[in-house]
Amino acid sequence: MAYKPPPRPDAIIIARTGDMTYSDILRTVKKEEALQKLGESVSRIRKTVKGEILLQLKETQIKDTGELKSKIGRLLGDQAQIRALTHETMVEIRDLDEITTKENIAEAIRNQIKELNHLNESAIKSIRAAYAGTQTAVVNLPAQEARLLLDAQKIKIGWVVCRVREKPNPKKCFRCLEYGHIARDCKNAEDRSQCCLKCGENGHFAKACDKKPHCRACKNQGRKNTEHQIGSWRCPLYQEACKKSRK
Hints:
By secondary structure, the protein is an alpha+beta fold. The chain has helices spanning 22-31, 36-39, 64-76, 102-112, 143-152, 216-220, 236-246; strands spanning 11-16, 42-47, 53-57, 80-85, 88-96, 124-129, 135-142, 154-157, 160-166. 26% of the residues lie in helices and 23% in strands. 26% of the residues are buried.
């Protein structure tokens, strides 16, 4: 199995918008008594290419990003713009029964992983039908929180013990809509960036399409199975790319 680097830690970016210099901003933030405890979450302070202040947080801190952002924002007011860089991971929960809802999933995670007892239903991005009457859900979480769920490997939802896996994220080209490269490296003779993702024809998009699914990418490769939306989970090209990304 290929080595996967650990997720990058979260960070806070401070961009100057008022009269204060960056030195004054940093001095003000570090002197603020209310930020002293949260300051222990910071592992590194540096300047970005644009000259903004970047506060990099420790990998073990998974709840401090939002709180630190809010408190620094209130402290500096209109002197600076504060934004958070939170790295996220998509997690698949498989083997759900066909009546499981997003709220059922969120409640099960909250009850079984104490560090995620704040999880909201909005983190459950989708539930789709899978094989043999089961469902698969996709959960989007900050990388460190996702790791807690992934480390569990299984979670009981309703009567079912469900498998937990990281959702594969194969490299995709938005020019030819195939996998294994990105648009700037695309050597495909056909540009499919303006085609309908459902039927593969030009002149309209999937939202307005009433035609049967047809995958232009699979057809281009001479495959017989083309009755699916290009790049969907049913697409053999997508399935093959996912297998490669797991290796």
